[in-house]
Amino acid sequence: MTATSPAASSLRRLYFIRAAFALVWAVLVGVTGSTLGPIVITLVILYPLFDVAAAIVDARASKQSQNVLGLYVNVAVSTLAAVGIAVASGTTGIPGILQVWGAWAIVSGLVQLVVGVGRRKMGGQWPMILSGGLSVGAGTSFILMASQPNAALTSVAGYAALGGIFFLVSAIRLGSAAKKAPVAA
Predict the structure, then answer these.
(1) Which DSSP helix (H) or strand (E) runs through 100?
(2) Distance in angstroms (rounded) separating the CA atoms of residues 64 and 62
């Protein structure tokens, strides 16, 4: 598959959208995430739901050219994360949210890693592979943070910002790969 395929073009647009969403979301959580209120709860539930929507769009655009099982696994995992975060926000609060977020980051990071490796030939996937691997480590740190006094959700803002940067770099690299790809006859 060349980087000029419809799937690569669609993926590039999706990565730009995901980057913008993650960066805006990170700023909002960074500003409001020190205490658990309705805005923060809405934001931390919205993030995995946005991931669900993005994975569905990605799977629909990619299903003709590649295996999309990992994307559907991500849909299920992110849906469960949104539900888990909603439950934790009303029961255990910030520590529970961090635990669910951490578990979600680990599993979705592994999925992102596998999907990125499978898309290597498309181009622009090394940032996604690296991001998936880092997500596993970040998820572990969120779980550990949950047991600390004064745990806050502002730490997930940095995670989302870094993820947004990786999506942006990957989108740019997909565009660079398309310019370098030979024109099909």
Answers:
(1) helix 94-118
(2) 6
Structure tokens at 150: 């004064």
List CB contacts of 143: < 8 A, sequence separation 6 or more.
98, 99, 102, 103
Question: In this structure, which long-range contacts are made by residues 1-4, counting pairs with CB atoms below 8 Å and at least 24 apart in sequence?
Answer: 1/65, 1/66, 1/121, 1/122, 2/181, 2/182, 2/184, 3/122, 3/123, 3/124, 3/174, 3/177, 3/178, 3/180, 3/181, 4/178, 4/181, 4/183, 4/184
Q: Look at the block and give the residue holding tokens 């969120």.
A: 142
Q: pLDDT class for 145, splitting at 50, 70, 90?
A: very high
Name the pTM for this structure. Answer: 0.88
83-106 residue pLDDT tens: 999 999 999 999 999 999 999 999
